[in-house]
Design goal:
Blueprint (H helix, E strand, L loop, with lengths): L6 H25 L4 H10 L2 H4 L1 H10 L3 H22 L5 H30 L2 H39 L5 H27 L11 H15 L4 H10 L2 H15 L11 H30 L1 H13 L3 H9 L4 H29 L5 H30 L1 H10 L2 H17 L1
Length: 418
Amino acid sequence: MKPWSWIPSLYFAQGLPNAIVVTLSVVLYKRLGLSNAEIAFYTGWLHLPWVIKPLWSPVVEMLGTKRRWIVVAQFLTGAALAGVALSIPASGAVRYTLVFLWLVAFSSATHDIAADGFYMLGLDERRQAFFVGWRNTFYRVAMLAGQGGAVVLAGFLEDRYTRSSAGGGIHAAWSVTFLLLAALLLLLALYHAFFLPRPRRDVPPVAGERRGFLETFISFFRSPGILPALAFLLLFRFSEAQLSKIAPPFLLDDLSRGGLGMTTAGYGLAYGTVGLLALTTGGITGGVLLSRLGFRRCIWWMTLAMNLPNLVYVYLSLSRPAETWLISSCVAVEQFGYGFGFTAYTLFMILFSDGPGRTARYALCTGFMALGLMLPGMFSGWVQEATGYPVFFLWIMLCTIPCFIVARAVRRFADCRG
């Protein structure tokens, strides 16, 4: 089976649920009328499956084939999205949609484990290197579809259902949007059930290899420099973790509540399309710079790029412009800086995971990364509601200080390692 027949669809299927859980859910609950504190707290819990993902990654490794895990996880994701769609118009919509979205997150985290392992089994080293850029590209395309296309579609349907005699409004619009997303995931699962290759190496490990998984987990926490490494993984995104929960409600909130009053479709264009394209461009630029200059020489510049552009939200909250192009430009600046700076974070995880059991070590790194997003994000809504948008975004700038502290610590750690 040719790689082009499954790599684009596999990584599109990997990225779409992540975009739905992390970003689309925030917009959904804002449109359903939840407060910012409720949105941040409830959607923060949706990160938990990625936090604890390393705990069941050995189960995926030991039981069954990765091909089977991929197909089952995709069918489960599609079914859970259908559950979200059917729950939106019902009474108790928030409670039931959260349950189904948590199931989406759990199956997505499981899919991440299986898909990344399958990629290494289905390709030789030369093809792995060649397709790594393409898999990231199609992952980004999925993020664009989930953060941009799906929001624009929901906004269009909101307007249509509100104006039509059929009625239904916001609930009907979002229900249809999630039904279409569910159908897309189920079609991808059906496609992969027939067209994913069956690598000979895709078999459960023998007993000796199973014991090695536990040894890898223990050795991770005995690694030299583990404390600065964990501090970096948990705190480098401390400000961004809070900003990412409040930026969408800020853009969507009415002017009377201190927001910018954007429509759902306008938000989808500004944040999910223009912003995501800037994010991708920043990531590519950061990757090129890292490959030429190395981690130690880039970390300070990338920490600045990750944090200083957050000032655009201070400006937007004080001036509250109405021009979509100006809002989109500010979002693009912030997202470019984030994409540029985040490449250093990714490279650090790769460097720290190097050695025996690198797949399990990398899974542990991503678990701590998810924890660093989950905890600050959960209380960000309460901070915003207690202070208002302008003061909250000033608080975000104050929260960049730990990012610089851990960047210095990890640079020293990298110097010692080198």
